[in-house]
Amino acid sequence: MKKLKSWPVWMLMGFLVIALLAVGSTRDAGPMTQSDRIDSITKHIACPTCDGESVYVSRATSAENIRKQVARDVAAGELSDDEIIASIARTFKAQVLLVPRATGFDSLVWVLPIAVLICAVAGLWVAFRRWRGQNVLGATDEDVALVEKLLAEDPTDEENV
């Protein structure tokens, strides 16, 4: 009976952890300087000529040009970060995002693996709970009685050995 009472507490703690992670991951760190904005934007843009590098890390000519374009757009102050990234994506006609956006279809890239993992763990938990209560080996009542009798005997009794 005690296990049944602790189950809602664990569920509440799980929901609390998920809520705190959601709030913590979406929390704004405050206003950014122009340099911070440039660094943040270029860390999310893939270098069009390099393999797997961001514009922030790459020293290729195309990456330098993208950094200069981002700096001009940030200094102008007319575009948001997403608009600057979209402008660069249109210019290079390629997939330039290193990290998928957290909206729309792109959010499935982040949410779907976590949801599958949670469902798999929950399914295993249910299956193990169900198996625990079943007689999966096909043991008869006589078999169970024999095992209980043998377990009840004193193992230090040398006459039975």
Written account of the structure:
The chain has helices spanning 2-26, 34-43, 61-76, 81-92, 107-132, 141-152. The protein has 161 residues and is mostly helical. The longest helix has 26 residues, at 107-132. The mean pLDDT is 80.
Please sum up the structure shown.
By secondary structure, the chain is mostly helical. The chain has a domain at 31-124: Cytochrome C biogenesis protein (Helicase, Ruva Protein, domain 3), CATH 1.10.8.640.
Low-confidence stretches: none
Instruction: Supply the CATH architecture of the domain at 31-124.
Output: Orthogonal Bundle
Beta-strand fraction estimate = under 5%
Gap from first CA to last CA: 40 Å
The CATH C-level name of the domain at 31-124 is Mainly Alpha
- Spell out the CATH superfamily of the domain at 31-124: Cytochrome C biogenesis protein
CATH topology of the domain at 31-124: Helicase, Ruva Protein, domain 3
Give the fraction of residues assigned to helices. Answer: 55-70%
- Radius of gyration, in Å, reads 30 Å
Helix and strand element order = HHHHHH
Structural class comes to mainly alpha
Overall mean pLDDT: 80
Number of helices: 6
Shape: elongated
Q: For the report, how would you describe the main beta sheet? A: none
Q: What's the total number of strands?
A: 0
